[in-house]
Amino acid sequence: HETHFTGSGDILQENSKKYEFGNEITNININSTIMNFVERKIKNKQQELIEFPLDVSYEDLEIYETLEEIQVATVYCIDLSSTMKYSSMYNDLSRIEAAKRALWSLYILNKKYFPLDSIYLLGFGSVASKIDTFDIPFLKTFETNADFLHYTNYQSAYRLAKKILKKNGAKNKRIVMITDGHPSACFIDNSNEKDKIVKQRPYSHFYMPDKQELNRQYSKKNNIEFEIKDNQIVYLCYRYRQIDQYIGEQTIKEAKKTFEEGINIDTIMVSEDDTLLDFINELAKTVNGKSIYINPKDIDKILIKDYLLNKKKTIRK
């Protein structure tokens, strides 16, 4: 987090400013304060009155400016849907491999230089799960099979990320979505909603994840444990270069709710396909966030630059 203002904090800077009521007097710049005292006496033609102890006035005081190290908690949500395994048209590196490299570099950077910050990672397809940072190199996309995990459910990622961040005491909280496409799944939170969808779209497909079975399959193989409510229904609808209206509305609604709880949301789209950028831009506008459209080969530079630009904050009081 960065601003042009300076003020009270934990890290002393070389430059100083005039003391203002409420500033921390322990940060006093003694040299500048004495020089201000001498200059004032000379200006008033009172240099012969300079004697110890010095009669320092309030207007002579200067204090060192400080930087405040702001603690940040960030959840990186990486899309594990089946299309993330595809390679970029520009190189042989798949989208998921590019994202993994960037996240690992970011994790090392964070631990070495900003240990007070918190970085969390979750993966999402039709449903989301927490991922240990040490498992980043071993992440794989969900395959197209009977588990129906290969769809993209932004809503699931938002809900789990919000749950993680609520337990963190940092004042600054962020969600960064890393995805290659549009949402193709969302939760159905009551039976009335399901009935409305079926009435409008008789062909609709719904999926009720078996939490115990999924965790049995994936906890050993991928060290993934899903967090799903019992009897949770997921609505699945993939349309080529289109977004189902209901899924789009529910995704925007969940993002807005998350933002209103004090959590910033940014989206990084790792794809060469710009036909769905309108939805990402609408999402960013709703939550006053950033939408970044990049080629997969540049994701490491983008993520690390974004992290560093959002890291420091100085405050004037």
Would you write up a description of this structure?
This protein has 317 residues and is of the alpha/beta class. The chain has two domains: 11-67, no CATH class; 72-309, Rossmann fold. Helices cover 33% and strands 21% of the residues. The chain contains eight helices and twelve strands. It has helices at residues 30-43, 95-113, 154-166, 191-200, 211-221, 245-260, 277-286, 299-309, and strands spanning 11-18, 62-67, 72-79, 118-124, 128-130, 172-179, 185-188, 205-207, 225-226, 233-236, 263-270, 291-294. The strands form three sheets. The chain has a seven-stranded mixed sheet with strand order 9-5-4-3-6-11-12, with helices on both faces. The protein has a three-stranded antiparallel sheet with strand order 7-10-8. The chain has a two-stranded antiparallel ribbon with strand order 1-2. Helix 2 runs parallel beside helix 8, helix 3 (154-166) runs parallel beside helix 6 and helix 6 runs parallel beside helix 7 (277-286). The radius of gyration is 26 Å and the shape is elongated. It starts with 10 loop residues before the first strand and ends in an 8-residue tail after the last helix. 32% of the residues are buried. The model is unreliable at 1-9 and 312-317 (pLDDT under 50).
Index terms:
three-stranded antiparallel beta sheet; elongated; 317 residues; Rossmann fold; 21% strand
Q: Based on DSSP secondary structure assignment, what is the total number of beta strands?
A: 12
Could you please say which CATH topology of the largest domain applies here? Answer: Rossmann fold
Beginning-to-end CA distance, first to last residue:
17 Å
* Structural class by helix and strand composition: alpha/beta
Strand order of the largest sheet: 9-5-4-3-6-11-12
- Helix percentage: 25-40%
Contiguous uncertain segments of 5+ residues: 1-9, 312-317
CATH architecture of the largest domain: 3-Layer(aba) Sandwich
Approximate shape = elongated
Main CATH class of the largest domain: Alpha Beta
Order of helices and strands: EHEEHEEHEEHEHEEHEHEH
Average of pLDDT = 82
Reported for the largest beta sheet, the result is: 7 strands, mixed
Question: What number of structural domains do the residues give?
Answer: 2
Strand content: 15-25%
Number of helical elements:
8
At the fourth level of CATH, the homologous superfamily of the largest domain is von Willebrand factor, type A domain
Global Rg: 26 Å
